[in-house]
Automatic annotation (TrEMBL):
A molecular function GO annotation: ATP binding
Residues covered by the Response regulatory domain: 6-120
UniProt entry keywords in alphabetical sequence: ATP-binding, DNA-binding, Nucleotide-binding, Phosphoprotein, Transcription, Transcription regulation, Two-component regulatory system
UniProt xrefs under SMART domains: AAA, REC
Transmembrane segments: none
Stretches assigned to the Sigma-54 factor interaction domain: 141-370
Stored Pfam families: AAA_lid_14, Response_reg, Sigma54_activat
Name the record gives this protein: Sigma-54 factor interaction domain-containing protein
Tagged with keyword DNA-binding: yes
4-aspartylphosphate: residues carrying this PTM: 55
Gene Ontology biological process terms from the UniProt entry: phosphorelay signal transduction system; regulation of DNA-templated transcription
Amino acid sequence: MSEKNRILLVDDDRDLLRLLSMRLAGRGYETVVAESGEEALAQVELARPQAVITDLRMEGMDGMVLADCIHRKNPALPVIILTAHGSIPDAVHATKNGVFAFLTKPFNSRELLAQVEKALQISGTHYASEKEPTESWREEIITRSSLMEDLLSQARLVAESDASICLRGDSGTGKELLAKAIHKASSRNEQPFIAVNCAAIPELLLESELFGHAKGAFTGATRDYPGLFQAAHGGTLFLDEIGDMPFSLQVKLLRALQEQQVRPVGSTSTVMVDVRIISATHRDLDAEVRDGNFREDLYYRLNVVVLEIPPLAERREDILPLASHFLSTIGNGIKKNVRGFSGEAIELLVSAPWPGNVRQLHNVVEQTVALSTTPIISAKLVKKALRQQSGQFPSFAEARRQFEQEYLAGLLKITNGNVTQAARLAQRNRTDFYKLLQRHNLDPSAFKPVKRQ
C-alpha cells in the first residue's frame, strides 16, 4: 500500500481500533494502530502516516496533548479527534490549536471518511528525512508532486552530460534552485556555480559582468575584472531571465559559447573558458524569436534540453510541505514560537491561486509569522497576506465591515466605553448602536479606563 494512504489510529479501546481499521481498509487505506499517545508519537516517526485519528480521552497523554506534540515537529500533519465527550468549547479549542477536525462518538462513518479524504487532499504532508547520499543533489527541493518528481528524474539524467539546459517556468517557481540541483548532480559539482540575472543588470554593465573588463576600459575601471564566465570556469554558469538579454549582447554570448572563449571589454586578447550553461526564462522564447527579439541561432544553442517547471497551482500537494518548511526556517530565524496553521488557514493556502508561485508562498508565510501573536496562524492573517501579496482590493462588503469596526472602536476609545455618548456622536439611537457593537463583537467595558487600586 502506498505511504500516501497510511492513517495512524490512536485509541485505548481495542474494539474501536478494530472497527476504525475495518472502515478505513474498506476504502483502500492502510492503517497503523497505537493504544496510547506515547506509542502514537513513536509510530509517527516509524510509519510516517498522512493523517492521524485519535481519541480525546485516554490514559496518560490525551488527544489534545498528542496533537500538540505532533504539530511541534510536523505542523502539516492533519489530526482528527474523536470523542464521546464532545462540546462546542472543546471543538473551538481544538480547531484553534490546529486540529483538522473534531468529531463526536458514535461517529458517522461517512462523515469520518469524508474528513479523512479532505485531510489527505489538502495536507501534502512532508517529512524531513535523511537523504541517501545519491539524493543529496536535490535535498533543497521540497516536493511530493508527481509532476516535480518526473521533472527531477529528467534533470538527473541530463545533469550527467554537458548539454546546455533551458529552464522554463513562471516567475517564482524555483528555477535557480533547480539549476543548483543540476549542478550538484553533475561531474562539475566541485567547481563553482555562478548565477546572474540578465534582467537586473543594465546592458553596458552586463557585458562587463559576463566577460570581464581590462583596467581603463571605461570610467571607473580601475583594475582588471575577470567576469563571471572566468569565475565559473570548470563549473556552471546560470543565466537567469535570458529572454531579457539585450539583442546586441546576444551576439557576443553566442560567440563565447561557440568558441569557448571570452574577450574582456577593452582587451585585445581572449581567455579560454570551460563552462556549462544553464539558462532560464519566464518568457515564451519561441514567440520572442518569431518577433525578432531573440536570436534564433542563440536559441538553438541554449535550448539543447528544455525542462518545464510547473506552477505551484498545478502541484498543490507541495503547498503545505513548503509552507511548513518556510514556517520552521522563518520561525527559527526570528526565534518565534509559531507551530502551524489553523485548519481554515490551511484550506486558504491550498486553494489560493498563487500567481507568484513558491516565492509568493514564502512571502505570505513570512508575513503571517511576523504578525502572528499565537502559536497557530489564523485564517484571517493568511487571507490578509494573500490579498496584499496579490495586490487585490478587499470586496466592498469586507471594506465596509472593516471600516465600521474601526469606526465604532474609535468612538468607544474617545468616550471611554460610554455607549450613550458614542451613540450620540454617531448620530444613532442607543439600541441601534448596541446592535452594531454586537455585530462587530465589541465590548464597551473593554474601553473603560482601568481603575487604579
